[in-house]
Amino acid sequence: MKIALAQLNYHIGNFESNTQKIISNIQLAKSKGADLVVFAELAICGYPPRDFLEFDEFISLCESSAQEIAKHCTDIACIVGLPIRNDVLQGKDLFNAAYFIEDGKVKSITKKALLPTYDVFDEYRYFEPATIFKCIDFKGKKIALTICEDLWNINDNPLYVSNPMDELIKEQPDVMINIAASPFSYTHDDERIKVLSDNAKKYHLPVFYVNQVGAQTEIIFDGGSLVFDTDGAMKAEMKYFEEDLQVFDLTEVENVRNKYPQPERLTDIEQIHDALILGVQDYFRKSGFSKAVLGLSGGIDSAVVCALACSALGAENVMAVLMPSKFSSDHSVQDALDLVTNIGCMHEIIPIKDAAEAFDNMLAPAFKGLPFNLTEENIQARIRGTIVMAMSNKFGYILLNTSNKSECAVGYGTLYGDMCGAIGVIGDVYKTQVFQLAKYINKEREIIPINTIVKPPSAELRPDQKDSDSLPEYDILDKILYQHIELKQGSAALIAKGFDETLVKRILKMVNVAEFKRYQTPPILRVSPKAFGMGRRMPIVGKYLT
């Protein structure tokens, strides 16, 4: 039996596009001699559909799309994911399911049992967990089909009733197939490989795993579909961050080692770089936009975002707006201009000195006798926010936010100023990682000016300002933030690890106090195991950790 894995980029709710993409890949798989082609979890509607699932018409469109797909399953079978109605008058209204389609008909339905409710997942809000499991008979083989989480951490979820594979193995299946919507993080590929390999060894069955690829607002799917033999050895690793379709012979997977070439594994920074480019591309493509605007300061954050945007959209579609103030250094303006020259994007120079002075004069009676402080700094940032939003409105550009994760974490940013935007490009990338990204972007030639990389970071909102005036050095700050955010370590645990007690408590208080700002920021492209946004839900008025 020859099995094709179709790793595709779906668009949530775009039934016409998704259906045609699935049908064209059925035809492609057929032309390559496949007996069965496998598509991802909820492929028909796209993942995650969220509250679209509450619309009855949405579910009906899923079913009608499945019936259209079925017409093309002649001389080839397919497995495709979709939500289906729960006909029993108990539990949730829907199942997360997969159809096995053969000879133009739905021959079998598999329902998902383990419904993730952690981090970015909220499936138990919509779906009823399955409790009955049965293998699929096809061409003299028994297929144990599972859906994503049903092969992940199956013993420690209180909502879970039974282990699908422990039930399916009783029917003596010949192969495991797992269809998934497994979001990217730069630590996830190794974990994914281990889990699937362990399952192959545990049940002594070959595993065929298909993931989707593409970005759905903040969530990025990296593809990387996998095949393992009965000993848990990886037989194939499909492309990352690209659509791909490959055909595998089940007999060869079971008996022949190292037949299929495997791509070279990417470093963490390479993965983050490629994920962010895909995230920007899909945000624009799926939203129907083509041109981006951002404020370019001469600093490293905006330089990296500009470079990523130009790679994703083409330099001709990116507008960089330089907005020097009376505090901007000559070298910052020159660094920004050098980047524009190196990268070839559009640019405008709009000084804000007159606007800032107008605000100072307007507010002088109200602020009489009070010294220059954070208020005037924030006014400058908000003037810049107004300018880039004006460019967005006037020309139809989409504004890219350039705040990094370190700044987002401690509230080092101005609401309605540098924190505005439609999508946060590097909001899940720590400052130390931003420097690594800049060096990676420059791997073949100087795109980001060297001076931008080596100079001390500064917002330049007052004379001789440096980030280190307000924040700990980033190499220390980021270590503490990573332990706290990604690893969920509280102050006692951090102090026990050797971090300075005063510094730990100061940083954790800054993180907690800044929660109200993060509630008002744009969605952030998720590249880490724990990103700000839907995967991290904290109370604004909570006192814990302050």
TrEMBL record:
ATP binds at G295, L296, S297, G298, G299, I300, D301, S302, T402. Signal peptide: none annotated. Deamido-NAD(+) binds at N378, E407, K517. It is an enzyme of class 6 (ligase). It comes from the Bacteria. L-glutamine binds at Y118, S182. Its EC number is 6.3.5.1. Keywords: ATP-binding, Ligase, NAD, Nucleotide-binding. The active site is at E41 (proton acceptor), E41 (proton acceptor), K112 (for glutaminase activity), C148 (nucleophile). It catalyses: deamido-NAD(+) + L-glutamine + ATP + H2O = L-glutamate + AMP + diphosphate + NAD(+) + H(+). Pfam families: CN_hydrolase, NAD_synthase. Pathway: Cofactor biosynthesis; NAD(+) biosynthesis; NAD(+) from deamido-NAD(+) (L-Gln route): step 1/1. Residues 1-252 form the CN hydrolase domain. This is Glutamine-dependent NAD(+) synthetase.
